[in-house]
Amino acid sequence: MGINTTAFSPKQFQVAIAEQDAFGTIEADGGNAYHALDVDSVGFPSLNPTQVLDVRAGSRVLQKEDFFQDVKASVKEISVSGTATTNALDMLLENITGKAEGAGTDGVYSFASNAAVQSVGKTDSSQAGTLLSLIIVSPLSNTDLAFKDCVVTSLTLNGDVGTEGGRIKFSATFQTGTLAEDLSDATLASGIDTAFAASENYFMSSWSDVAYRKIYGVDDLVMSSFSLTLENPATFSGLVSTGYEVVSRAAEFSASLDLTTKYDVNTEPLIASFNNQTQQGSSAAQATLLNDDASMTNGNFGISMPTTVLTNVAFNEGDIMMLDVSVKAVGDGSNSLVEVAC
Q: What is the pTM of this model?
């Protein structure tokens, strides 16, 4: 075989996700079930095979029969980042909050203060739709990388007025404990919705009413950037021939928000609040909200944390003095821990 002169650009690769109907069965590609993520770049997934390369007794050199590899007891991880568009963001938020397919049709995704452990496995039909199928689409024919039974374990949504006009960007981490569906000859990429309309984009400029730009009860913020991070770790158990047969969400679900805002008469009191906050303060005084209105609505990007605690307040020296402020959402027994609308 001679050399092949065909070359590909990294920008030709795509990542597409679909809501999966059953554990262990990758979603079929009919009817544009898969939606392409508007990614900036595509990195290679972490396949994490278990390898043993220890030299055995009787030799100073690793022998071929001593090499061992196992892919069943491994958790695969895929990380992507790009622009947060409506169809993709709906599925990402739905999954990380543990909602079943179609449960967030109003466009508002929340996580309760008293949420129970979430689990789904091979014989569990009641949690169908809480998993995703993911394909890394290659420009080379029939060489897509396909994964099933994926869950979003980390999702960051951020914006900066100095970058793309404050357009909302995302970074997501997916994990699966099931064997890869195919790494060499997948042919599932024929039914992918790759269209991105301008109306699917979200911008910080939509938060035009200063009354609804609020952190830890302080409104009238003049912001330059924000970053919301949602974490919902997954634990994989029950090893079988196809990988792990159960995926559970039992560790802490966390929601934290970092933002940079102008240092002025409105935000200066946050310094003392950070130092003097009490174990149980007033919920109204601890509310954090970034939205176009008082409540979350479908089609408008917004973040609501009814009760938060300050985890950092610090000067940020630039052309003008800014404040870096960080809060973490805490449960108050009745309200949602966090709500995100899109």
A: 0.92
